[in-house]
Amino acid sequence: xxxxxxxxxxxxxxxxxxQIEPDVVAAYPITPQTEIAMNFSQFVADGRVKTExxxxxxxxxxxxxxxxxxxxxxxxxxxxxxxxxALMWEIVYIAxxxxxxxxxxxxxxxxxxxxxxxxxHSDTMGARDSGWLQVYCENAQEVYESIIAAVKIAEHKDxxxxxxxxQDGFITSHAVEGLEIFDDKKVKEFIGEYKSRFSLLxxxxxxxxxxxxxxDYYFEHKRQQSEAMKNALTIIPGxxxxxxxxxxxxxxxxxxxxxxxxxxxxxxxxxTAGTAKVVVDNLRAEGIKAGLLRPRFFRPFPKEEIAKQLFxxxxxxxxxxxxxFSTQGGPLFIDIRSALYELDNKPLMNNHxxxxxxxxxxxxxxxxxxxxxxxxxxxxxxETKVNYLGVR
Amino acid sequence: xxxxxxxxxxxxxxxxQGGTAKEYKTGDWRTFKPVRNESKCINCLICWVYCPDSxxxxxxxxxxxxxxxxxxxxGICASVCPVKCITMEKG
Lengths: 392, 91
Description:
- The complex is a heterodimer of chains A (392) and B (91).
- With 392 residues, chain A is of the alpha/beta class.
- Chain A is built from 12 helices and 15 strands.
- Chain A has helices spanning 9-20, 34-45, 59-71, 82-97, 122-126, 140-155, 184-191, 218-247, 272-285, 303-310, 331-340, 363-379; strands spanning 3-7, 24-27, 52-55, 76-77, 103-108, 133-136, 163-168, 177-181, 254-257, 264-267, 290-295, 297-299, 315-320, 348-354, 386-389.
- In chain A, the strands form 4 sheets. In chain A, strands 9-11-10-13-14-15 form a 6-stranded mixed beta sheet, with helices on both faces.
- Chain B has 91 residues and is an alpha+beta fold.
- Chain B is 11% helix and 21% strand.
- Chain B is built from 2 helices and 4 strands; from the N terminus they run βαββαβ.
- In chain B, β2 (56-59) and β3 (62-66) form a beta hairpin.
- Chain B is elongated.
- The A-B interface holds A 97-100, 160, 198, 205-211, 213, 216-217, 219-221, 223-224, 227-228 and B 3-7, 9, 11-20.
């Protein structure tokens, strides 16, 4: 029987970690992630989990300790946000390249400067080329469930990559929602026991982790990593299928909302999709065929599936909660435009960058994007350009 | 040696066994190599004492040559030799 309790997104992440009970958690507090580490530390202090907790002096050390623990064969986790993730940078790459399946709840927050503690996606988007898997969650329930599924995805023998489970800072991390919590035993059964493919502590089979890898083999290791990312694209739906069957859910690489017969649509990730769904419903009530595509996984990027979903639409706007400064739009837009390039019948398309530094976005702004799309369809003209939604 | 392709090597750069440093011939780095004039050598073995890479080969108390697989060509042996029987040559 699932239990219904009121939790914030951060508490939901900590609750998932309690049920997973990793061998090692190394963490350093940073707003708005702090409450994940804080709540989990409480579980350890109360003796509710046997996890070895390492209170480190920085995020760089948190990720380093996770790399060490994972190389020793432990199931290792940490959590971070914004500048904390930036400080982990060097080791974030090492975790992925050493193929250590570390799970990291990440609470999206703007990167400095100027200093801002509120939500946007510039932190994790900056890490998009590090080789980590990334899943973006709409609400606390999805955060809780995605962290559980993430363990099994990261540890899959043909993936072996670390994963960030992202939620929107404050919007999701600090808002209280009613949450369905699975039975502890069922979660443990689902994730199973972790058997690492090697261990630094195995004195019978001495190994070297992270050796020098110059012109002769470095390239080959990067090629392996791309293959793992490609594998992830085909393996994740299967793992989510198992999850869906076990917990009666319906997760995929993306969520399509009223998209089947839609003529115009938005693409947006994380919590803003919830607001956009309200707008879609309002427009549908007016007889306008509006829809929404919410990519859950940004890495691996489900290129073909996204192209299939957007094929046949008349006009699409892609909403990015971060700026790439390429002057070609946000990272989501750039990837989606590239995914659609080979389609014969491309929809009219533009990009809106929104919500930087936690700038609120309401149904009025989202509706204005849809109204522009309606006009574009009528005129059969839409300039492919980057707009800034809600900036003065 | 034929190099392996990306499908043939352990993932993540893992070296799955111990003692593999033996297979790494650090002599590849060398620009100059020590060459000995055997007739001048007095077998004092001071070169053996000073060589940082244990490359001076000795048998029955006599210097027999250099292990070029690991000699990095630092020139310490030539510099400490009291009779100057070791010279550094390119290669």
